[in-house]
Amino acid sequence: MSNWTTQDQPRIWRSPDSNFRGDEIMDSLKVYPEESLREIASHGFNAIWLRGRLYDLMNSSVLPELNRPDAAQRIKNLQQLIARGKRCGIDIYLYFNEPLAVKENDSFWDKYPQLKGESWMHPLTKITTHALCTSHELTQRFFNEAVTQLLGNLVGLGGVALITASEYHSHCWSHYHRFQPMDDGLTDYELKPMTCKRCVEREPADLVCDLLTTWTQAADAVTPRPKVLAWNWSWSMWYEEPQSEILDTLPAGVELLLGFERGGTWEQPGRTITVDEYSLGYTGPSERFKHANKIAQAQGRPVHAKLQIGTTHEMATVPNLPLIPNLHGKMVRLSQKNIQGIMACWNFGCSLTLNTYALKVFTEQPTQSTDPTWFMEKLAISYFGSVDAAAILEAWNGFCDSFNHYPFSMKFLYLSPVNNAPSYPLSLSYQDAAMGGSWLEEPWGDRLEGCLDLPGEGTNQLDIDTVIHDLQIMDDLWEKSLPAYEKALTDDAPATEDQARHRFEELSCAKMIGKQLHSAQNVFRFHRWRKQAIQTAGLQAPCTVSLDDEGAAIIKDELANVRQSLELTNADARLGYHQEPQTSFYDSALLQAKCKELQALLT
């Protein structure tokens, strides 16, 4: 039976140069030349995904006010990309979160007030939008026309991946919660009643299935038929696990895209962690995944897995997290669960690295690859050349031991300074400023309590002492594993040009992860010291404290660590770059500036 390792099922990736926040489709022919597509295929992938926005791709006669300029050119670009992909063994998939809500001050509402659905204010941009109420007949006619037209214009499209809850505001239920979700530190999830008089009488499952029916009917009219992947992202905001109210009512022809880690429990030393995001530290699959997969298998419905195999929010500013035993465990369990395909990245963590090459090795020899020793020795020798495979395996196991202590929580992932820790300032002045998003170009903030699950505030109970303790254990275990890795990767054993480059890149990445963990630890240690100094002096923010021996010791330690980080970033420009905002959170210039600031504090 076909499964995710066979060539006829999708293994979806994307380029790190493709800008999710920009106009991906307009830029797609430049971002994806044949050379890039063939390189992606060489790592075991047979598809890529791009973000689609329906208004950018349609010529609606029902609601022409929503048509955007240059739609015909975008369609032409996609048609050319589909043809180019076929030549390289790569199918094209589009991700949609539709129909997108319209800003509340848009003139569209002057003409169509009857379509105005539930409003939602984005927690970061503070922009309010209104849903196009999908329970209204005119919206339904519009959506049917637009989707049918889109898929009809894109013959040969591999498929679509559809989010129908959370993320961008779309239908009226898309941001209304029936259950209080885990606190992410950003969003005020007020459990308030639905105000749309049409949708209040309907179940969220009704709206989701209406949308999916439109997509499947449009796909049915096209040959070859594109896949319709219904992503279960955030269905948990409406229904108890495993959201069978939606699973049991999905239209025929819909295939499921299930998050591999969300809805799981992670048994760490001395505690149980709730997982509601991607993770490479946690092998999975989650209980939610297993239950939903069981229902789908009983229905005969194909299931695909959504995961990230390169990096996650755990540490997104390095090219990859070399937690190979955990990654191997994920791939083995995917095979055991009869999974038909995978979407292996989001809009970051998209570099081709050791981790993606691991997928290539597994898919080329899936039977032998279930043996972890055989697989990891094969991977080490294939990727690095004639290295000491036993030492490499020892280091990979140590790296996984390190990340089994990661202080995992939604607030820590979304608001902590881990991604920018090497350049994060240590200041004697405290402003009590809120933390910015860890994946955004925002002011960093200095109220580190905002990224902690304090007692009574979160599920994973991470106060500052716990976080410092966890980061110290991670740092110690990582550094303990590095010498064997470095010795194996700097040996003079024979290597091809590519294998020599791989040795440099992976050692560079592994060293930087250690430095990043150490900087993160120092950031929290310094904040704890500063808050104690403020309390002792009876000060209130904004304020400035005086440096004592304890604070100076932390600064000296961080200065030495940043200088070592600077050497690494000078030699490897990949380090510090976050692919979602397409910017560096730390680089040579930022680290040089921090060194000067730390030196100034000490003098």
Query: Which blocks of ≥5 consecutive residues have pLDDT under 50?
Result: none
Spatial ordering of strands, largest sheet: 1-2-3-7-8-9-12-13
What value does the average pLDDT take?
96
**Strand fraction:** 5-15%
Cα shape? globular
Number of strand elements: 17
Computed over alpha carbons, the radius of gyration is: 25 Å
Q: Write out the CATH superfamily name of the largest domain.
A: Glycosidases
Architecture of the largest domain, CATH level 2? Alpha-Beta Barrel
- The total number of structural domains is 2
- Helix coverage percent of residues? 40-55%
Structural class assignment: alpha/beta
N→C terminal distance: 69 Å
Q: Write down the CATH topology of the largest domain.
A: TIM Barrel
Report the major sheet: 8 strands, parallel, barrel
